[in-house]
Amino acid sequence: MLSRIGFGRLACAKDSQPYIVPINFSILANDIVAFSTEGRKIDWMRGNPLVCLEVDEIETPQRWKSVIVLGRYHEVTEAAADEAEKVLIHETLQKRAVWWEPGYAKTVLQGEVRPLNPVYFRISIDTITGHSAGD
Amino acid sequence: MLSRIGFGRLACAKDSQPYIVPINFSILANDIVAFSTEGRKIDWMRGNPLVCLEVDEIETPQRWKSVIVLGRYHEVTEAAADEAEKVLIHETLQKRAVWWEPGYAKTVLQGEVRPLNPVYFRISIDTITGHSAGD
Fold first, then answer.
1. Per the count of CB atoms within 10 A, which of B10, B56, B63, B117 is most buried?
2. With contacts defined as CB-CB under 8 Å, which chain A residues touch B11?
3. Given an 8 Å threshold on Cβ–Cβ distance, is B16 in contact with A20?
C-alpha cells in the first residue's frame, strides 16, 4: 500500500513540538525515500531523526485504510551514496511529481523535472501499524 | 478552510518521537475541538500538549492548498466545561461522523451517534501558516 500510494504526511519534531508536511515518496529496499528542498522540515530532521509517516486511503467512511510508520531520517549525501544508489533513487523519484514542495523549481531539461537544491533522504522503518475498515 | 473541511492529520510527540493520526474536528471560538477514545494519542497529548494539525485540499497537482497549525492540547473535562460549552461542543461534533476513531462504538440513540468513553479536547492555535498553488 505504501508503495502504491506514494503520498502521505510526514511529521518531525523539535523540542517536543511536532510539525507535519505532505510528502511524496517511494519505497526502495524497505526504506522510504524522498527528497525535499532545504527548510524547516530538513532542519528539524537533521536535529532529531525520529519521524512518523502516515498514509491513508479513504474510499468511503465505511471503507478506509491507514498505515502509520515510525522511523528514522537518514540524509543521503553525494559522498555517502554509491553511484547505483543515486541512480536508483533518482529514477524512483522521477516517477513522482514534486509539485508540492515549497520553493520547488520546475526546471524541465530533456524531460526531467528537478528540484532546486534537493536534499535526498531515506527513512528507515522501526515500526509499522495499520488500521482498516470495510474489507 | 479549516472549518469547512473539518478533517486533517494531527501530530503529537513523546520523547522526540512524533506520531500522526487522522482526525475529524470542528472550530469553536477560534479553537479546534475534537474528541477521541482513550489511546496512544490522548496519552501522549496529556504528557506533552504541543501538537500540529495539517489540513489540505488537493484538487490537482497544480491546484492545492494546505494549512499547518501549531497549537496546544487542552482536555475538556466535565468538571471544567460549563454547560453552554458542553452543549456547543456536543452539537458541533455531532455534525461530523467519527467513523474513523479506532475503538469507536456506533451507538445510535434517538438519532445520535456517540463514541465509547469519549475524551473531549480543544487545541488552542499558536501559529497558523498556509501554502497554496493555482488560485
1. B10
2. 11, 13, 18-20, 52
3. no
Contact list in A for residue B72 (CB cut-off 8 A) is: none
Whether residue B53 and residue A20 make contact (CB cut-off 8 A), yes or no, is: yes
Residue A45: closest C-alpha in chain B? B16
CA distance A111 to A89: 17
Other residues' Cβ atoms within 10 Å of the Cβ of residue A58 = 14
**What are the pLDDT digits (tens) for A33-83?**
887 877 889 999 999 999 999 999 887 766 778 899 999 999 987 666 667
pLDDT digit string, tens, across residues B78-124? 666 667 677 766 666 666 555 444 444 344 444 445 555 678 899 99
Contact flag A18-B11 (C-beta cutoff 8 Å): yes
Distances (CA, A) of A76 to A39, A73, A82, A104: 16, 10, 10, 19
